[in-house]
UniProtKB/TrEMBL annotation:
SUPFAM superfamilies with a match to the protein in the record: GAF domain-like, Winged helix' DNA-binding domain
Name under which the protein is recorded: IclR family transcriptional regulator
Span of domain HTH iclR-type: 27-88
Keywords: DNA-binding, Transcription, Transcription regulation
InterPro entries: GAF-like_dom_sf, HTH_MetabolicPath_Reg, Tscrpt_reg_IclR_C, Tscrpt_reg_IclR_N, WH-like_DNA-bd_sf, WH_DNA-bd_sf
Native source species: Trebonia kvetii
IclR-ED domain sequence ranges: 89-266
Keyword Nucleotidyltransferase attributed: no
SMART domains listed in its UniProt record: HTH_ICLR
PROSITE patterns: HTH_ICLR, ICLR_ED
Top-level division of the source organism's lineage: Bacteria
A GO MF term: DNA-binding transcription factor activity
Any one biological process term the GO annotation gives: negative regulation of DNA-templated transcription
């Protein structure tokens, strides 16, 4: 199993159990950011901060923070008159969404087979604008289970899914993703780099209580024959995945990811401008 384990967090956003209360602040912030993007249309392609606040109901001071975040990520651009517009990077996200739809059609039966085999929820995670996003899930029938909503983001620097996706990135892009951590905690960034190198070599990762209390997860890389395009992940309550059963569950995830990779490879490699694939 993984020698690396990120600092544990009692409760967070990502691989969480229904029975474990989680804060909604992160989800609310994400909803607000999305509402800012959705305020634009062909008829309203340029908007001021005040106009965006009026359309979304977000207070103006908060709106300026969201605008700054979207400009920092390259999704929004402003002019000298205080008006903002979407950037062409949105086109890349749209193409990534189209690719995700294609992948979902291929992945769904494989994921259902894996749920039937292991009895746990299975999620399909893609990196969109350098954020791991659950684009599809197939839930288990257990009352106590890890749960996700399609479209939900996961931490990039914590958890098995994040490490698998980081391992699939080009070196330059990965360094950029790790740069903030390297500035605040160089030792932790170095440990994470070493762990990612191991994940890149073997194609899988595991995590235990890195994102939420009581959850162990196994994740394996899904490729298109040339690059990592997604992570196939099974988050499981520790009460049903003690150490004696983890190897079996990991093997099931790896086998399903290999099967899915073979199916996706038939479709051909993902276009470089529809995602941010590994090389």
């Amino acid at each position: 199993m993984d020698a690396y384990s990120a600092p544990q967090v009692p409760d967070g956003t990502g691989e969480h159990l229904i029975a474990v209360p989680a804060t909604a602040s992160g989800a609310e912030g994400a909803r607000r950011v999305l509402s800012v993007l959705q305020a634009f249309s062909p008829q309203r392609h340029t908007l001021t901060a005040r106009e965006l606040a009026g359309l979304t109901g977000i207070p103006l001071p908060s709106m300026y923070r969201y605008i700054a975040l979207l400009r920092e990520t390259g999704l929004l651009a402003g002019d000298d008159h205080g008006a903002y517009r979407l950037t062409p990077r949105i086109i890349g996200l749209a193409r990534a969404a189209e690719a995700a739809e294609t992948f979902i059609e291929i992945a769904d039966p494989v994921m259902r087979d894996l749920v039937a085999e292991c009895g746990e929820t299975v999620i399909f995670v893609r990196l969109i604008a350098r954020v791991p996003v659950c684009v599809h899930r197939v839930e288990s029938a257990h009352h106590l289970r890890a749960t996700f909503e399609p479209g939900q983001s996961l931490p990039l620097l914590r958890g098995a899914s994040g490490r698998v996706l980081l391992a699939g990135l080009p070196d330059r892009v990965r360094r950029e993703c790790l740069a903030p951590l390297a500035q605040t905690d160089p030792a932790e960034a170095e440990r994470l780099e070493e762990a990612i190198a191991k994940v890149a070599a073997r194609g899988w990762a595991t995590s235990e209580e890195e994102i939420d209390r009581g959850v162990w997860a196994a994740s394996a890389a899904v490729t298109d024959g040339q690059a990592t395009v997604a992570a196939l992940t099974v988050p499981s309550p520790l009460v049903r995945s003690p150490s004696a059963l983890q190897e079996r569950l990991l093997g099931q995830v790896r086998a399903a990811a290999a099967r899915l990779s073979a199916l996706i490879a038939v479709q051909g490699p993902v276009s470089a401008d529809s995602a941010e694939p590994a090389r």
